[in-house]
Write a structure and sequence with these properties.
elongated, two-stranded antiparallel sheet, 6 strands, mainly alpha, two-stranded parallel sheet
């Protein structure tokens, strides 16, 4: 086993089991591009500040670019015995450049190196996830445009409550996703400060230019405190919070998809490419994607608990516990991307069974509130109108009728305020179209929502 970079203090090799336990290259290897990006900025600053010669700086940068190209092409594979991606790249650079490569780590610690790598990596991941969330929101907006008059029952307590439209229902998720995008954007803004130059915890005696490395890496500014620079992982927690909410929204929608494609609802039918069958029951068409999303939501929430638990007892500054941040946040990132990439085409290709939605809305007395409002608009106090309508619903249940088929004589037996126009007032189309209040389900109100959402999505 090769000597570790820090081996000078020690008189013997690290136990092989300890080395395997301590190693993180199996999961932090994915940050190789960002590690090299940070090292190029650091080498550039060292040369410009005269901390190392300009010639050495340029040679180091060239060597780092060659290593990046070799990793990208597959010509260079990670050494599984390396402690981490940072030590692997530095060792490879030293192997290629000799003493020149050893100058790269001047005025830098692995602590601030790790801190800058993970910020660079997660910054890119946030951009990719934001693009996927936006794509899902656009998919739902486009679908909503096609279903502004597709009547369906709205639910409370999983009981049919009031008539809405599919467009209205879909737009509810669009607003959730827009908030998700705002949270991702806010997280990216707060994490976009550069820890490079913080050293191990107390900065450096070299006259470095932290603003230069910050600018080269596209950060807003250097982190103002070196202790905070190496020990802060708030951004991992905050990002995981945002990812947990994204997964929660996907999970809620998934639960509805699972119900909607069941024979009990049959509001939608999933495309065959996004469903699975049974090994024994030939009639089955299972919504496995949505079930997995529900399950993975718990996993992403668990990653959040891991991060919070890992941080809660740590004194300043860096502690090895913080190596556990990567597996948790990487897992959360990976699963959110995987779920979004699968969920989007599933939703885009599902078939909406409009007639079944409308038939479900026609049952369950979901126009009862409109019947009460009919009396209120004729001067009756709402609580009296509520009681009368409840009595009429009970009569309908007893006679196996609906409010639409209940004879006018039964209406008028309750109050003379009922006339033939009650049937128009309680029709499903009227119930939906008259709900014109801002944010409501009427076609006009939903179209206003769509316009606002399209503006927010820059469509």
């Amino acid at each position: 086993m090769a000597d570790m970079m820090w081996a000078g203090r020690f008189s013997k090799q690290v136990d092989a089991g300890v080395n395997a336990f301590n190693s993180s290259i199996a999961f932090d290897g994915r940050m190789y591009r960002h590690d090299i990006q940070g090292s190029i900025a650091h080498a550039t600053m060292l040369g410009d500040c005269g901390i190392i010669s300009k010639e050495d700086s340029l040679e180091i940068i060239g060597g780092l670019k060659e290593i990046l190209a070799d990793i990208d092409s597959g010509a260079l594979e990670f050494d599984p015995n390396a402690e981490d991606i940072h030590m692997f790249i530095e060792a490879e650079l030293t192997k290629r450049l000799g003493d020149v490569g050893k100058r790269l780590h001047t005025s830098r610690s692995r602590n601030d190196q790790v801190a800058v790598d993970i910020r660079l990596y997660l910054r890119d991941e946030i951009a990719e996830i934001s693009g996927l969330v936006k794509k899902l929101a656009v998919t739902l907006v486009n679908m909503a445009k096609e279903h502004t008059e597709t009547v369906m029952p709205g639910y409370t307590h999983l009981q049919r409550a009031q008539p809405i439209t599919l467009a209205h229902h879909l737009m509810a998720y669009v607003w959730m996703l827009l908030r998700d995008l705002e949270r991702l954007s806010d997280t990216a803004k707060r994490m976009n400060y550069c820890p490079l130059g913080s050293g191990a915890l107390a900065g450096t005696t070299y006259k470095t230019n932290r603003q230069q490395t910050s600018d080269l890496l596209g950060f807003t500014a250097p982190m103002p405190n070196s202790l905070d620079g190496v020990s802060d992982r708030d951004f991992c927690v905050e990002l995981n919070c945002a990812l947990s909410l994204i997964m929660t929204h996907l999970s809620r929608f998934s639960e509805e998809v699972i119900m909607w494609c069941s024979w009990e609802f049959k509001f939608i039918e999933l495309d065959d490419a996004f469903a699975t069958g049974s090994s024994i029951m030939p009639q089955k068409k299972n919504p496995d994607i949505t079930e997995l999303i529900r399950g993975k939501t718990g996993r992403v929430n668990g990653d959040l608990v891991t991060l919070l638990s890992m941080l809660k007892g740590l004194p300043l500054a860096y502690n090895k516990d913080m190596q556990e941040d990567k597996e948790a946040i990487f897992d959360a990132v990976d699963n959110v991307k995987l779920c979004l990439k699968t969920f989007i085409p599933m939703i885009a290709t599902m078939k909406v069974l409009k007639d079944n939605m409308r038939n479900a809305a026609a049952r369950g007395f979901i126009n009862a509130t409109d019947c009460a409002d009919y009396l209120v608009k004729k001067g009756m106090p709402f609580r009296d109108a509520y009681k009368i309508t409840g009595t009429l619903v009970a009569q309908c249940i007893e006679k196996n009728l609906t409010l639409e088929t209940l004879p006018i004589e039964d209406y008028r037996a309750m109050t003379d305020l009922f006339t033939e126009d009650v049937y128009e007032a309680i029709s499903l189309d009227t119930c939906v179209k008259e709900r014109k209040s801002e944010g409501g389900p009427s076609p006009d109100a939903v179209k206003q929502q769509i316009e606002i959402a399209e503006k927010a999505l820059e469509l």
